[in-house]
Amino acid sequence: MASELEPEVPAIDQSLLECSAEETAGKWLQSTDLTREVYQHLAHYVPKIYCRGPNPFPQKEDMLAQHVLLGPLEWYLCGEDPAFGFPKLEQANKPSHLCGRVFKVGEPTYSCRDCAVDPTCVLCMECFLGSIHRDHRYRMTTSGGGGFCDCGDTEAWKEGPYCEKHELNTSETEEEEDPLIHLPEDVIARTYSIFAIMFHYAVEILTWEKESELPADLETVEKSDTYYCMLFNDEVHTYEQVIYTLQKAVNCTQKEAIGFATTVDRDGRRSVRYGDFQYCEQAKSVIVRNTSRQTKPLKVQVMHSSIVAHQNFGLKLLSWLGSIIGYSDGLRRILCQVGLQEGPDGENSSLVDRLMLNDSKLWKGARSVYHQLFMSSLLMDLKYKKLFAVRFAKNYERLQSDYVTDDHDREFSVADLSVQIFTVPSLARMLITEENLLTIIIKTFMDHLRHRDAQGRFQFERYTALQAFKFRRVQSLILDLKYVLISKPTEWSDGLRQKFLEGFDAFLELLKCMQGMDPITRQVGQHIEMEPEWEAAFTLQMKLTHVISMMQDWCALDEKVLIEAYKKCLAVLTQCHGGFTDGEQPITLSICGHSVETIRYCVSQEKVSIHLPVSRLLAGLHVLLSKSEVAYKFPELLPLSELSPPMLIEHPLRCLVLCAQVHAGMWRRNGFSLVNQIYYYHNVKCRREMFDKDIIMLQTGVSMMDPNHFLMIMLSRFELYQIFSAPDCGKRLSSEITHKDVVQQNNTLIEEMLYLIIMLVGERFTPGVGQVNATDEIKREIIHQLSIKPMAHSELVKSLPEDENKETGMESVIEAVAHFKKPGLTGKGMYELKPECAKEFNLYFYHFSRAEQSKAEEAQRKLKRQNREDTALPPPILPPFCPLFASLVNILQSDVMLCVMRTVLQWAVEHTGCAWSESMLQRVLHLIGMALQEEKQHLENVMEEHVVTFTFTQKISKPGEAPNNSPSILAMLETLQNAPYLEVHKDMIRWILKTFNAIKKMRESSSTSPVAETEETITEESSRDKDKAERKRKAEIARLRREKVMAQMSEMQRHFIDENKELFQQTLGLEASNSAVLDNSPMVSDVTLTALGPAQTQVPKQRQFVTCILCQEEQEVKVESKAMVLAAFVQRSTVLSKNRSKGIQDPEKHDPLFMHPDLSCGTHTGSCGHIMHAHCWQRYFDSVQAKEQRRQQRLRLHTSYDVENGEFLCPLCECLSNTVIPLLLPPRNIFNKLNFSDQPNLTQWIRTISQQINALQILRKEESIPNIASSKNSKNMDKLQLPEGFRPDFHPKNPYSDSIKEMLTTFGTAVYKVGLKVHPNEEDPRVPLMCWGSCAYTIQSIERILSDEDKPLFGPLPCRLDDCLRSLTRFAAAHWTVALLSVVQGHFCKLFASLVPDDSYGDLPCILDIDMFHLLVGLVLAFPALHCQDFSGISLGTGDLHIFHLVTMAHIVQILLTSCTEANGMDQETPAGEEELAVLALYKTLRQCTGSVLKEIPSGWHLWRSVRAGIMPFLKCSALFFHYLSGVPAPPEIQVAGTRHFEHLCNYLSLPSNLISLFQENSEITKVLIESWCQNSEVKRYLNGERDAISYPRESNKLIGLPEDYSSLINQASNFSCPKSGGDKSRAPTLCLVCGTLLCSQSYCCQTELEGEDVGACTAHTYSCGSGVGIFLRVRECQVLFLAGKTKGCFYSPPYLDDYGETDQGLRRGNPLHLCKERFKKIQRLWQQHSVTEEIGHAQEANQTLVGVDWQHL
Ligand SMILES: [Zn+2]
Ligand SMILES: [Zn+2]
Ligand SMILES: [Zn+2]
Ligand SMILES: [Zn+2]
Ligand SMILES: [Zn+2]
Ligand SMILES: [Zn+2]
Ligand SMILES: [Zn+2]
């Protein structure tokens, strides 16, 4: 039954194709009831076109819809063929000067920090590049989708609103012109009617809620039983849950389920089953049942197919409308009119209203389609934007409530359009004035936040997860509030004033609910049971911070508003304080004859709250009053008399006391929640509207009351009143027997209180408090941040408060206070404080945390010591207070203050036990210093005749009063100056006394004639000098002592090095070094050094001793001793590849005998150079393995190394390794028979070798026929003429110890296993080939690195590379001794045959397809296997030489064939030299042999140049190879950079420097060889242009070129769509830096299967592009990604820096980023050196969390 209902793709109905658009439109034009006519058409055709089966066919549907449904509409609208009609409309149109480009996900957007009205104003890339802002300070972000370009919007930009392109469209007649005048009357009429019908249809069907019934006028007679089971998106269920459920419910494969889930997530709904009602219902119930267990079930509907059809067409229609209005602004206006026209049901019945109000019921896809239509219509038409804004504001409450209860993200809600409307200043102002928007937003917000306590305050304790979820969503309303306030009015109308103040009232109501929320009580006895909820309240505070600041900014703009707001705020605060003094009897405090009444209250015993937004707002407004001087102009307008200073200070003071008590450890039992709250109270994100304002409120209070009263209240709140009021307070310890903890606690409280007084007097950098401006404020912040340490730009930004535009104002002042230091290859650019700013440093700066304060103190003292100054850090000179705060300074000279100072000094003088602390004293000294600075300032600035009332110096000179009769403060300071226990503070006390004297002098000089006070100063002066001299002497003694100690230490060090010489040598470079030692020996220096051949320079035998890093035992490297090994890492590599697509297809069948010159896949060996005994290593490795197995049983965690694959970390340096290489002596010397007489020339040698090969081949053939008797065998042997001296039955003895043999096999097998990715098999004939290949490949890759960096071949090679190459070459040369002789001989024969023709092989590559260096290494290293049976007297060296010459000749021919084609126009001027004539002759020969297909090149000069250039890499590699093989040191000439090395290389390699003479010397054989090489069919195909070949020299591979400007990469990536899911934007576009491919990383869509596991696109790509290793750039994150294999990866710092020398990983800051070439080179070098895997290993070892990342899914 069911299967019948799932038919094949239905064939296209013929009637559809026959339907003519023109005819239909014609019919409509005649019709009287157009609506009915059109509806009938739709009712008939829509179900026939859309949704005709289980799967949609979008292309077919679109084609038919255009033909049958949209076509008639277009004909009707134009009244003619739309192909002509629309272009006409477009031409008549005067296009808007708005850009309005709607952003795609991930598209780059730009905001100008100088000119944008607010940060939401953005430009698209095209407009940005054509605007003036590209030279301004701009910020770059990537769009999250939605939103559009604001180019052309004059309200969005303070300057340069148009880009070049859109500027053209601005004309004299600005926006007021009606666009309809450009349209013909009849078109207008028809457009109206057709838009009205179609828009109405779309809205009706999209908002249709019935599941099986259509609107009456769309119902058709016959109705099929076809339904869809429609699955809807929600944000509750995960991808995995949905996929799993679908597989169960509709019986689909995992792949299909992934497809469904992806579409549901993207579009919001997807039909998952098609069939009759029953069938769909059944699937629905399974889905619901399966997903309802923990959460609410997935939403599923069974819908009739015709409804789905109409809805799909409805969406299509909206997109169509959006594109049609693009032709003409007139059409757009008509659509706007239609949309906003009120419907028959009155209010809220326009189509636009209906859509908005149904928003939360629509699925994602439908929402985004109509949102886009709104953006391209209503928001692009300046007139209708206003009308739409009004509709939006009227519906605001409903829309927000819908959004709050909906679960989709905000970007999918129509509420999100608020940003487009509210940020337009004129609209925002209009909505405030006319729609009372401020009040609406705040009230809506309050309505949704209902959890209140008994006093009506917010209460977040015990709120549920659902409430928390709702709370998060409600926060977006605060954002709306911010948008509305972000642009401040320049002019105020009465209406605006009135509505703003109404909004302010509502805002005060909101703050009132926060005032005193989350109160806490000190926990005594036991610890709190549950940490109370605190985050919600702080989140609210944090989110509101900018709004509170902006409210104040608005008030500051208008005096009337400010005064009214001040009054309102005060009234609300008074309400909050209602019942404040009720009940309790006040208590009386008195000290020094002053007394005051206050309430009885103890922070440590009663409730206290950190949240006091109303008090703080009042403090803010008070400062504004002070700044604006309104308080002086119209004092009668202000309710100043209503202010009760004790009431104002009460709550802020409690809050600060709470902080002090927490700091003193009194609230320990209240847990972390309190600690966190205190932290955020001071934090840069909150402090502006919390801590800072509390300080201001206290300053306000002090300035309005008797400072003595204030101090007494403060003492009382700090619970210190008893200590300072007691008459004998100086003796508090002797009289009290108190617990030590309490004393400690009180000490801290005293310190905190003194600190608070310092802040109250010293913090004058808020404009309005002190006479400063905003620049001074920010400068001071920066100076203090940089006093701690030099900082990077981003660090500094983070430590400064941001305003609502995310600006700190730092850039405008930073130059004045700091120097910028550029970054190096790593690290960041840094700002350093200018030295002249140090004098502004205030040790008690109020935004320092404790840790910062002590760091800053240390740094500043150090600086002073470096400058040889005294280390006192006196208080800086401060700006004067504003008049409203001016009386505040008197607190410093108030009696109570002096009493406190005296008391503390008294304690310090007596210094008994723990009754006082140094910090306490330090603070008192600072306060005294401040008072002196103040007095000095007063004296300096005093006007004539005025008396300075600040007389601190006089007061501290007076002794204390009875009954104590204590000495004066000054006297005590003089006493303390010599106290031995106050060494640190001496400089400060000295500074105080000096300043005191200076002031005294000033006073005296101003009042009376100068008195001879000099004597005192002189004595003072001289005693100071004496003191100075004494200190200098001491310093000198200290310096000498230090030097002596240093000398001793370095002596000891030397001794230590001597004792542990080997260890040091080894770390400095093993055998440091062979060559260096030899260079000094006279024997070598006179001779020309030659690395191979019979003339090879004889190297004296060197004994080599090495030490095992594991057991520290020393051992000599010898043939017969225990093996020593180097930790090594073998990996496949494509770094040198010229053909990335190739790779190894079938590892089991792959034959690595010949390396193709494209070097498509090689095996690289690296080593950290650390040496171990083979057995020590084995023991170590076994233990690692055992440990890992135990660990894996417990928890299957990845480690940075994979033990199962033989990986381990070098025990010394933790470098990732996967095998070991044995250390060997030069292996050639072991087999060399020193017989140099009468060696054959090349021709003879080739003949001999060919005979030997021939003999071997016959023998092999014999052996391969098993059933031939041995006698017969021997008979054949006789028949076979064995060449003279050749003994194929001879098997040489392996000279190596068993241990070395074992390691030869171990390493060989490892190379084979990793290189081919096969199971280890030590007997596989390919093992020796892989070893030789790895040797050749590694040498080639190192040669490339050296050439690229212009480094000499034998220059100071890093010792680990040197060690690695030496061991690897010698190993490869010795490996044949552990392989089967016949196998190695077989390899040799075949390799040899590729150059010397031999009929027995049919499958040899032509010389174009052989990498000659690989061939050379293979031949040379296989040769001993043949040579060991040769007793004819030919030396091994002769063979090496001839092999080398032969291969070199082949390479020359290879180069001439492939690399000399580009004819160079320049002819040489000098007559042709020997080489040039020779190469020309050779080239002629080649042309003859190839039948003249080879192009004629007349210039020998050009040919010779090409040959030389082409063969250089080969010669260099060969030199390295023979150097390590033979141990012959390199001639000094090629150890230095710069010079031309060609001749020296030739000498070293026994080559004539005229390479062509090789051919001439061996002309006999040359001709035969050249003919055989050239007449190969592949060579012919190449010369005929039928195939390609590699040419020489091969260029080095580089990483791809990156653009200078990072945004062009972002743009490129935003145009990239996922290759698998049909045009979807990729979420994590990732660029392969090796080949430039863009990939869709980290997503389901592009996962593929690799070796039976699902892997992401990046991992899959590494296997095809980098043989498992990859380097990527994650474009949206601006992050480099290293991957190796499936489990290894790490992030690496990107090569892009901003102007401050910093990277921006995650693109969070958005500063423009530019390519840093050096850093990119560094990444490239890591790649070329094959160090990526090692880098990952180190990163993972350093950061274990990287190990847990699922790298394979990226
Ligand atoms: Zn634009
Ligand atoms: Zn533009
Ligand atoms: Zn600008
Ligand atoms: Zn050892
Ligand atoms: Zn190591
Ligand atoms: Zn994808
Ligand atoms: Zn790639």
TrEMBL record:
Q: What is its EC number?
A: 2.3.2.27
A single cellular component GO annotation = ubiquitin ligase complex
Functional pathway: Protein modification; protein ubiquitination
Residues forming the UBR-type domain are 97-168
GO terms of molecular function: ubiquitin protein ligase activity; zinc ion binding
UniProt keyword annotation of ATP-binding present: no
Its main localization is: nucleus
Does the entry feature the keyword Amino-acid biosynthesis, yes or no? no
Please tell me which top-level EC class this enzyme sits in: transferase
Q: Which residue intervals make up region (Disordered)?
A: 1003-1034
Q: Which reaction does it catalyse?
A: S-ubiquitinyl-[E2 ubiquitin-conjugating enzyme]-L-cysteine + [acceptor protein]-L-lysine = [E2 ubiquitin-conjugating enzyme]-L-cysteine + N(6)-ubiquitinyl-[acceptor protein]-L-lysine
- Localization terms from the record: Chromosome; Nucleus
Q: Spell out the Pfam families in the cross-references.
A: ClpS, PRT6_C, WHD_UBR1, zf-UBR
Basic and acidic residues compositional bias: what residue ranges? 1021-1034
CDD domains hit by this protein? RING-H2_UBR2, UBR-box_UBR2
Q: Where are the zinc fingers (UBR-type)?
A: 97-168
Q: Which UniProt keywords apply?
A: Acetylation, Chromosome, Coiled coil, Isopeptide bond, Metal-binding, Nucleus, Phosphoprotein, Transferase, Ubl conjugation, Ubl conjugation pathway, Zinc, Zinc-finger
A biological-process GO annotation: ubiquitin-dependent protein catabolic process via the N-end rule pathway
Described by its record, this protein's role is as follows: Ubiquitin ligase protein which is a component of the N-end rule pathway. Recognizes and binds to proteins bearing specific N-terminal residues that are destabilizing according to the N-end rule, leading to their ubiquitination and subsequent degradation.
Similarity-based family: Belongs to the E3 ubiquitin-protein ligase UBR1-like family.
Q: Could you tell me what this protein is called?
A: E3 ubiquitin-protein ligase
